[in-house]
Automatic annotation (TrEMBL):
<dbReference type="GO" id="GO:0009279">
    <property type="term" value="C:cell outer membrane"/>
</dbReference>
<keyword id="KW-0812">Transmembrane</keyword>
<dbReference type="GO" id="GO:1990281">
    <property type="term" value="C:efflux pump complex"/>
</dbReference>
<keyword id="KW-1134">Transmembrane beta strand</keyword>
<feature type="signal peptide">
    <location>
        <begin position="1"/>
        <end position="19"/>
    </location>
</feature>
<keyword id="KW-0998">Cell outer membrane</keyword>
<dbReference type="GO" id="GO:0015562">
    <property type="term" value="F:efflux transmembrane transporter activity"/>
</dbReference>
<keyword id="KW-0472">Membrane</keyword>
<dbReference type="GO" id="GO:0015288">
    <property type="term" value="F:porin activity"/>
</dbReference>
<keyword id="KW-0813">Transport</keyword>
<dbReference type="InterPro" id="IPR003423">
    <property type="entry name" value="OMP_efflux"/>
</dbReference>
<dbReference type="InterPro" id="IPR051906">
    <property type="entry name" value="TolC-like"/>
</dbReference>
<protein>
    <submittedName>
        <fullName>Outer membrane efflux protein</fullName>
    </submittedName>
</protein>
<dbReference type="Pfam" id="PF02321">
    <property type="entry name" value="OEP"/>
</dbReference>
<keyword id="KW-0732">Signal</keyword>
<comment type="similarity">
    <text>Belongs to the outer membrane factor (OMF) (TC 1.B.17) family.</text>
</comment>
Amino acid sequence: MKSLYYFSFLLLFVSLNSASGDDLSLLSEPKQSLLRYEKENIDAEHEKLRTNWLSPINLSGSYSHNKSAQSDYHNDMTGISASVSQDIFRSGGITYQIEYADTKQQTRFIQLKQTIASLNSQIFNTLLNLKKSSYQLEQSDLRLKNKEIEIFIKRQLYDAGKVDITELNNALMEKSGELKTRSSLRTTLSQLRLELSKSSDIDPDNLILPTFSLIEKERFLNNQFDIAYVRSQSETLSHLYDVTRSTYLPSLTLNGTLGYQNYNAKELPTDYEGDYYTAGFTLNLPLTYNASATIQEAKAAYLKENAATADKARELEATYKQSLELIDNYKDVISITSQNLMLYDDLIKAIRAGVNAGVKTGYDLQTLNNTKSIEELEIKINEINIQLELTKLHFAITPSKEL
């Protein structure tokens, strides 16, 4: 099981090592540029951290002219040199620094992919909610048609003295409430289109949405971005703890200088021109008062993040379970509504026969047909509700979705 985890985590890291065009294709060009610059920043930081244990080579040049205070002796001296003071042993610190740089890059790549996934998820959520609100608007139009029929019939009955004004007033108030609902839905559609335009240039009217399928629980728990980030961050802090600890352990430094010098003694026959070098080693053993506290602080940060892994895994199990329960509830609503539609089919046949026989009115048939259409739209709405839950699970582990 442990080897399976490391294999899956390795595959995740390979996939995270680049923000592909497919991941960004739905996003607007400005957002794509921002994310590409972020990736360049991650790569640059990685290179900086991976090599910052290398000391610089110091180049220097000099010229001097001297005159003796006791005589007329003069001399000129020119020189150029290169020197370096490079740690070649840090009690493991060099290896730890490289490992820290690699895991920090991995952690930031996971964050970048999660950002891309979040943006793509928002786009698909908006597209699905646009479709859902359109269906709800159709339902509202059908309900208003039924309210018009109800008001017409109750007005006739009121004029005939068969119902009191309360029933007619209730029907008018219900129509008013439905008109407000329709207005609110239109506002929602406008807001959703505006929200979509902020992050994408796609045209929702000419887009066929893909169908999302259920992510397996084990795959979700092993590859979800939050858990991947916590694991990677824990590993990063572990290497940072090793780096911190090694700074208080013995280190060995190679010191070297290579140069060229030209000495012109003028009046004296002691000129010199040629190369020179120095080489040596320095053993350092730092004795710092707060070393123990600093090391313990780094260790505590690592242990805290490591403990967060188990907590996050438990939280994700609950999230996955909740999504499954919601999906099952939506499926139940679809099943119940489908059964109701079969009843409506029987009622419509009976009403149509009554209309043909002259014992039923066309208003009854129209009302039932409208109600059946409302229920058919209800099935489509709950299918979208299922897709919204599946979208949430999909983009929790994957940054993109093919159209």
